[in-house]
Write a structure and sequence with these properties.
Blueprint lengths: L1 H12 L6 H27 L14 H34 L2 H16 L7 H34 L7 H32 L4 H28 L2 E3 L4 H12 L4 E7 L10 E6 L2 E7 H6 L2 H16 L2 H23 L3 H6 L8 H40 L3 H15 L7 H7 L5 H7 L15 H6 L13 E2 L1
Parallel strand pairs: 2-4
Antiparallel strand pairs: 1-2, 3-4, 3-5
């Protein structure tokens, strides 16, 4: 039934001379306009000079002003980055970069590669490598500015240029090491399993995701950071007792040297259902009391107890199946390939790239829906920690992280709906019924010092992890 519907849809959408390129460019421009309109709304909030009433007793004016300045600096960076990316995307489409680069990689293989390495799969892998390398080079100035100018100015960056370069080289090496076999298998499945290829692709990617959950903490993290066991003491004993009471299958409790690169701070858990590890950033230990760290971990264990990670993994599988099933509608769409300059070839990889461009408008809708879902999960995890008796400690730890991170104290409701996977601080504190009459101090009691050595809570969320 599904297959019959997809075949009818494929015939309906394969219309000669249909302006797919104009449609994709229109989608891109609309997304650019929406993103910057939302950013403008948020910039107006970041220009306010008064501390939100809900935080007047917890955040001093100097910290608030610095937070607002940092938010405006990031907004400006985001605006210019978006302009660059939009121009780059338009140039790729308008100048037919895909067919030109595809032809170039074909010539490279024909001239330098042995005959056994010829074929669409090899050419697709070389295409991705060359395209990614060009994109990396073009993005270097923005990456350098973000780390060594913007973040440096506000006391975030701890990296040296050498470490920055080494991280890039390691990332590229890992991309090749994992990307070549995974990419080869992906393309081979799509080419060899007929019209039902999307079922097999979905199963394959499920295996890849589960494998990544296993491999990431064991092989990948140690390449970039040092992990050491949490030292024996009251904190370790209390965390182990908390995990035991909740029947959390804790096998390792480790500290990660996040301070090696920045002042970022957080904690997360990862692993398979029967074997979990908790990882705490050294910066969190340095800037929080033991009870506050325990409260943060209680929040994280709340995510586990209520099955949030499992639910998100299940949702991602449904999403992947939807993507691959819909891709089967476009994989042989002649009008799509021809719109983008592929008149004689129908490479699967190119079809997938073009299909993702067409799918872009739905990404914004899905992002909005996922943010609504993850926000509700954060409220639930907070409520879980509150029920365990950590109301005061969780509230103070959230405020400390907000101050240390120089995170935005307020947000435009529409901007936050599209961009924030977590509720803003005032919303979380209100939901927790938390209140305090005095400003929250850092571990050393010096809030200004904490603000100057601020942390950043906007680090990426790994699919295998849960973070505060």
């Amino acid at each position: 039934m599904i297959q019959a519907f997809l075949q009818r849809l494929a015939r309906l959408l394969d219309r000669p001379l249909f302006p797919w390129k104009k449609l994709v460019i229109g989608f891109s421009l609309a997304d650019f306009a929406l993103g910057n309109w939302l950013l403008f709304r948020q910039y107006r909030v970041l220009s306010k000079t008064s501390v939100p009433k809900a935080l007047e007793n917890q955040v001093d004016k100097a910290t608030f002003d610095k937070s607002q300045e940092y938010g405006r600096a990031k907004a400006k960076f985001g605006f210019f980055s978006s302009i660059f990316n939009e121009v780059k995307s338009y140039a790729i489409l308008y100048l037919d970069a895909y067919p030109r680069l595809w032809a170039f990689t074909g010539l490279l293989l024909a001239r330098f590669a042995p005959a056994r390495f010829s074929g669409e799969i090899t050419q697709s892998l070389v295409f991705v490598f060359v395209f990614s390398f060009i994109d990396l080079i073009l993005g270097l100035p923005f990456s350098y500015y973000h780390s060594f100018v913007l973040e440096e100015k506000f006391g975030f960056n701890k990296m040296t240029v050498k470490l920055w370069i080494m991280d890039m080289l390691k990332s590229q090496a890992l991309t090749i090491a994992f990307g070549v076999p995974i990419g080869s298998a992906f393309l081979s499945i799509a080419k060899r399993t007929g019209q039902n290829f999307f079922y097999y692709l979905w199963l394959f990617m499920l295996v890849v995701q589960v494998s990544a959950i296993t491999i990431y903490p064991i092989l990948i993290v140690p390449l970039f950071n040092k992990l050491t066991p949490l030292k024996p003491g009251p904190l370790k004993e209390s965390v182990e007792a908390l995990a035991s009471n909740l029947k959390f299958p804790l096998t390792e409790l480790q500290v990660i040297d996040g301070s090696k690169r920045s002042s970022h701070s957080n904690a997360y858990f990862t692993g398979l259902p029967w074997k979990k590890k908790i990882v705490i950033y050294d910066t969190l230990l340095d800037k929080s009391s033991d009870k506050e760290v325990e409260a943060v971990l209680a929040h994280e264990l709340g995510h586990w107890k209520m099955g949030h990670t499992t639910k998100l993994l299940a949702i991602s599988q449904v999403h992947l199946f939807y993507i691959f099933a819909l891709f089967s509608v476009f994989i042989n769409n002649n009008s799509l390939y021809e719109s983008f300059g592929f008149h004689n070839e129908r490479p699967v990889l190119i079809g997938f790239l073009l299909f993702n461009n067409i799918l872009a408008p739905t990404d914004e809708i899905l992002k909005l829906l996922m943010n609504i879902l993850t926000r509700s999960m954060e409220y639930e995890a907070d409520a879980f920690a509150v029920k365990l008796g950590y109301t005061a400690e969780l509230g103070s730890s959230l405020i400390k992280l907000q101050i240390q991170n120089l995170s935005s104290m307020d947000a435009d409701w529409l901007y936050s709906s599209f961009h924030y996977s977590h509720p803003i601080l005032t919303e979380r504190l209100k939901a927790m019924s938390w209140s305090a009459d005095q400003k929250v101090k850092g571990k050393t009691g010096d809030s200004e010092k904490a603000a100057d050595k601020s942390l950043d809570n906007e680090k990426p969320l790994m699919a295998a992890d849960r973070e505060l």
